[in-house]
Specification:
- This protein folds into two domains: 4-155, Rossmann fold, CATH 3.40.50.10170; 157-278, Hypothetical Protein Tm841, Chain: A,domain 3 (2-Layer Sandwich), CATH 3.30.1180.10.
- It is built from eleven helices and 13 strands.
- It has helices at 16-22, 46-54, 67-77, 96-105, 123-138, 143-156, 167-172, 179-185, 208-220, 236-246, 262-268; strands spanning 4-9, 24-27, 30-33, 36-39, 60-63, 83-88, 113-118, 157-162, 191-195, 198-203, 227-232, 256-259, 273-278.
- A hairpin with a 2-residue loop joins strand 9 and strand 10.
- The chain is globular and about 55 Å long.
Length: 284
């Protein structure tokens, strides 16, 4: 049976313990804090990062690892695996997909088949795609089956979120909205949606309670839901409020709870919350 490896990056927010269990290779984003550079998930924990952020001592930026990091990883993995699926954050949100592509272009033609994939997602939207692909590999799926599954998963995983302050997204350049629109968002807590890889306004909500209600409405609107992930930055207590609302339509004890890691948190800021939904597939 052909050996297959799944690769992603730290914007997937997959816990390292889960990645280890599923055999997923995670390439860390670089987090610049002041004059210090950290590798997300390795040199800096989420708790450290958010503590610095809330103390007002951190002006954090992220950058994709250089393509040589991917090239070295791919060359190492090709010694053991016949197929590599490298699945990454939306190319419209950062340069990590491009960095991986550049590395792929430098591999010899005779090397393992390495496919670099733009998920058009981020955080646990991307994480769900990656984890299901890795589970399929462990279950013995062929490379063609894994490829078809990944493409289907990308179409059926969705992310919605809100931020406490729009300034982090605005400063990071991840919001390509008109100035007038951004100005009006300063006074509200809008729900934002990942649509074809871009962040777009989804619903105007004025309070945190209404924004959490909006997360629930987003989940409720799907005719079928197989998985739900509740995501938070610094307010785990607010996850409970979402679980209470969701419970009548999706068992609360089946909702996964994940924290935005530094790779995503640097752009969302403290207080951010979100939900990722996997609709399920008719055919795997």
């Amino acid at each position: 049976m052909a050996s297959i490896k799944i690769v992603t990056d730290s914007t997937s927010d997959i816990p390292l313990s889960v990645a280890h269990e599923l055999g997923i290779e995670i390439v860390p984003m670089h987090i610049q804090v002041g004059d210090q550079m950290y590798r997300a998930g390795l040199d800096i924990t989420s708790d450290q990062f958010y503590q610095w952020m809330q103390d007002g001592r951190v002006n954090a930026t992220t950058s994709a690892p250089p393509s040589i990091v991917f090239e070295q990883l791919y060359r190492r993995l090709t010694l053991e695996h016949e197929h590599i699926f490298s699945i990454h954050m939306s190319s419209r949100l950062g340069g990590i997909y491009r960095s991986a592509q550049q590395a792929r272009g430098r591999l010899p033609a005779s090397a393992t088949r390495t496919e670099v994939i733009d998920s058009k997602l981020a955080s646990m939207g991307l994480g769900l795609v990656v984890m299901h692909a890795a589970k399929a590999v462990q279950a013995g799926a062929t490379a063609n089956e894994v490829s078809r599954l990944i493409n289907a998963l990308i179409q059926h995983c969705h992310v919605v979120f809100f931020v406490d302050s729009i300034e982090y997204l605005e400063n990071s350049g991840r919001l390509s909205l008109a100035t007038a629109v951004l100005g009006s968002m300063q006074r509200i807590k809008p729900l934002l949606l990942l649509d074809e890889g871009e962040i777009v306004p989804y619903e105007r909500t004025r309070t945190r309670a209404k924004a959490i209600e909006g997360l629930y409405t987003f989940i409720e609107d799907f005719p079928r839901v197989q998985e739900v992930v509740a995501m938070y930055a610094t307010t785990p207590e607010d996850v409970e409020k979402l679980l209470e609302k969701v419970d009548p339509i999706f068992p609360r004890d089946e909702v996964q709870i994940m924290q935005f890691g530094p790779s995503i948190g640097a752009h969302l800021g403290p207080g951010a919350m979100g939900a990722a939904v996997f609709e399920g597939l008719d055919h795997l």
